[in-house]
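Help needed: design a sequence for this.
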């Protein structure tokens, strides 16, 4: 008759679980630090952002909770990973190594969970979605709401990034799907589909001299103070390129990071802004500024859905692509 004692079978009278598995193995099991996957993920976020505050916002967690998780990870490993200062956080020497190893481990853990979930036969799991600012503010929320209504068991891990970062995330397999402006040249490793037309619109103060015109040329717009949106972003860089082609100065009077902030600057008369129709559609309620189409051959822009070419994808990812491209 076989007897079971705490999971060990037929242990000798003078034996212990420690003896059964071997002294060395038992010691290693006790000494091995317990690494919490969530703490690792939060450490990686803080390292990427260079700030506890920005990492907490990106991961949708309280700053105090994120800081405590990272401290727990450092305690478990017995080494400091982040150097903290009023300006933010930087990686220590150990932190740089931990980041490199942890990034791969975190990706493996996510891949494990996602692929196992996909075998359940239902559309479930997590879709990593990267999107640029104009799509996040404009047409994407409604599409995601419709997707969630149809697939309630799918979690959407959305990150707002510049178009270039969205494409890079697809190439690096950090994003399953991206919605953004198309890159300058086609990328053989990536598939893409139409998402939405997104023409450029000029936004002016009510009493601006150009507000009387039905449409505006870019050469007319740049004669006046400009409100810059997302300095260095795809849209901002594109405007600078057009100004250089016309050999006219492009000298914004103020720079902001959101379309809402740009509209506020226009409302009070600080300058003119050029933004996408998708972004402006989300701000259509206000009557404190004027909208005019941009009369240029390059005004018509297109948002596209991107995904890395693969022989097979998770059901949830395929469902997301189908929802966004339709």
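Sure. Designed sequence:
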């Amino acid at each position: 008759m076989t007897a079971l004692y705490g999971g060990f079978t037929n242990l000798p009278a003078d034996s212990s679980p420690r003896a059964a598995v071997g002294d060395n193995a038992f010691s290693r099991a006790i000494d091995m630090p317990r690494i919490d996957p969530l703490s690792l993920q939060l450490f990686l976020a803080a390292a990427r952002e260079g700030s506890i505050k920005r990492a907490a916002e990106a991961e949708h967690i309280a700053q105090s909770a994120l800081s405590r998780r990272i401290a727990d990870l450092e305690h478990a490993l017995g080494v400091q990973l982040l150097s903290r200062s009023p300006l933010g956080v930087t990686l220590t020497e150990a932190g740089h190594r931990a980041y490199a190893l942890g990034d791969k481990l975190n990706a493996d853990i996510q891949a494990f969970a996602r692929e196992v979930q996909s075998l359940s036969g239902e559309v479930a799991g997590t879709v990593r979605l990267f999107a640029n600012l104009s799509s996040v503010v404009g047409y994407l929320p409604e599409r995601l709401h419709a997707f969630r209504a149809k697939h309630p068991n799918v979690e959407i891990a959305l990150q707002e990034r510049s178009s270039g970062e969205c494409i890079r995330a697809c190439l690096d397999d950090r994003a399953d799907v991206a919605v953004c402006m198309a890159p300058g040249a086609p990328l053989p490793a990536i598939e893409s589909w139409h998402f939405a037309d997104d023409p450029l619109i000029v936004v002016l103060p009510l009493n601006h001299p150009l507000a009387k015109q039905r449409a505006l040329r870019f050469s007319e717009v740049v004669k006046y103070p400009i409100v810059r949106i997302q300095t260095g972003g795809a849209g901002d860089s594109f405007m600078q390129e057009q100004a250089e082609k016309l050999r006219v100065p492009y000298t914004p009077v103020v720079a902001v990071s959101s379309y809402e902030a740009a509209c506020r600057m226009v409302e009070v008369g600080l300058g003119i802004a050029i933004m996408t129709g998708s972004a402006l559609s989300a701000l259509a309620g206000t009557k404190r500024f004027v909208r005019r189409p941009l009369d240029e051959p390059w005004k018509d822009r297109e948002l596209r859905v991107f995904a890395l070419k693969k022989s097979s994808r998770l059901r949830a990812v395929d469902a997301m692509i189908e929802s966004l491209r339709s």
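Confidence is low (pLDDT under 50) at residues 1-21.
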